[in-house]
Structure formats: C-alpha cells, structure tokens
C-alpha cells in the first residue's frame, strides 16, 4: 500500500509539473541578441550601442549583434522590431526623435505606445547652439540681439522636420521672439557640412557631434540646452543661465523591445545596462564625450516619452509648424 501511495504521489507531481511547464519562462538569452540601431554607423546612437556592446555581451553570455537599419528617420528599424518576436532576442536602439514619430509620420505602420515597450534610456546629452565663426556674435545675448536686428536674414540647419534640431530651434525662436529661417537637410552630414561652410549660420547640434568642431575653432558654441552644464562644455552657459528660465532640451539614446516581451527579460536587460552605465570608468568615458548616463527604469522611460510627446505636440500646434 505504501509503495502504491508513493507511486500515486510521484505521478501527481509529474502531472503538476507538466501542467505548469507551458507557463514557465524559458532561459534568456538562449541565442544571440540583435540590437537594431535605427540609424547608419557613425552617429550617436551607433556610438553608444558599440560602447555598450562588449560589456552587455559579457554580462549576457551570448553574442550581442549591432544591426544598423537606417531609413525614414529611424521608423524603418522601429517598424521591423515592432513586428519581431517578443522574446528579448531582438531589441531597438533609438534617438530622441522617436518621441516625435507620430507628429512627423502620421501614417506609421506601428504604434509607438502599443507595439514597442520601453526598457531604459541609456544616456543623454544637451544640444549646443553653435554658429559659424563668421557670425559676429560672441555670446548668446549678443546673438539674440543680432537676430532681432536682422529678422529672417540668418538661417538654421536641421536634419529634417520634426527632428530635435528643428523643434529646439523653434522653441528658441518662440522664447526669444526672434525669426530665423529653417533649412532642413536629409541628414546630419549635409547639415553639418553647410554649417561649417557658412551656407547656414546656426544649428542646435548634439553636444557629442559639435565637440570636435568647437575644439578646432570651426564652430562657436554659444549655449547648451541642458538643465546644467556638462563637463565637456564647462565654459558654455546653458540657455536658462542666459536668461531664459525653464528652457531645457536633452537629446537621448534609448533601448526598447517588442510589446509583450516578458517582464523578467525587460528587468534583466535594464539591470545589466544600469550596471554598465553606472560603472565609474564607463561613466567617465561618456562624460568625456559630453554624454550623461541615465539607465532609467521602464516606467521612468515611458513617463519621459509621454512628457516629450506632450511638449513637442504643444509646440507644433502653437507655432503652426509643418512637419512634412
């Protein structure tokens, strides 16, 4: 009788284990992790991804593959990842323009609020108001005075309608009561080339991208858009310090996953990224480039996205901006 009872208990245990098996989370990662970078090689997003790659790879114990998929401001890559299996093996790394996709591309094939889920913001950097050296203004105040004395005569570059360069410049115009003509380009390379050549006079450029040109004297930095100065631009005041309180814009790089990715996977990813970003050596490397590590939680990242969307949607409506 005792042996029969033992066999029955064992059978029950196997049945319960089998019943629970479909709900158990498989080990992750079980294969290489592909990080789809929404822009071509050489930009800020790609730069951050490649700095993160070896450390994340060591932590996860699987190859981490960087897959650059540029096109349509990052929406091509985003749409691809949105359609991917939500198993944590395909991820998306984006720029701050992600928050304005619905404004710029009203016919998106995916919903940024429903088809992709935030994992973490990785790093941020302010934009820097830079001018070609031929512009006579030496500081922010004199530059605003110059613009007011010559409305519409100077031009500013952006990488396209709805980009952070474009919207930040429009916010600047609204706050300072100035008018500068918008010259949109099909990418950062051509925009910077014309800025350096003097075909356009100003641009709100990422602190990381502006740094070598400012150091070389090819561009003049007049203000930075963060809440406080970053070490790489210690001598450049913020726009708020220059008298326009509450003016704050930061460019950022973030990591997302397809909607439905298991929460344990998302939490593990966020935790591993946080370990890297908060490592003193890695943090110092970021700071030298003008970047600041973030490593926010998924909830913090989601809240930041909503704030960004609200801010820029309000600006677009108030200014009557065309993003086509």
From TrEMBL:
Keywords: Signal. Gene3D superfamilies: Bordetella uptake gene, domain 1, Periplasmic binding protein-like II. It holds the Pfam family TctC. Residues 1-17 form the signal peptide. Belongs to the UPF0065 (bug) family. This is Tripartite tricarboxylate transporter substrate binding protein.
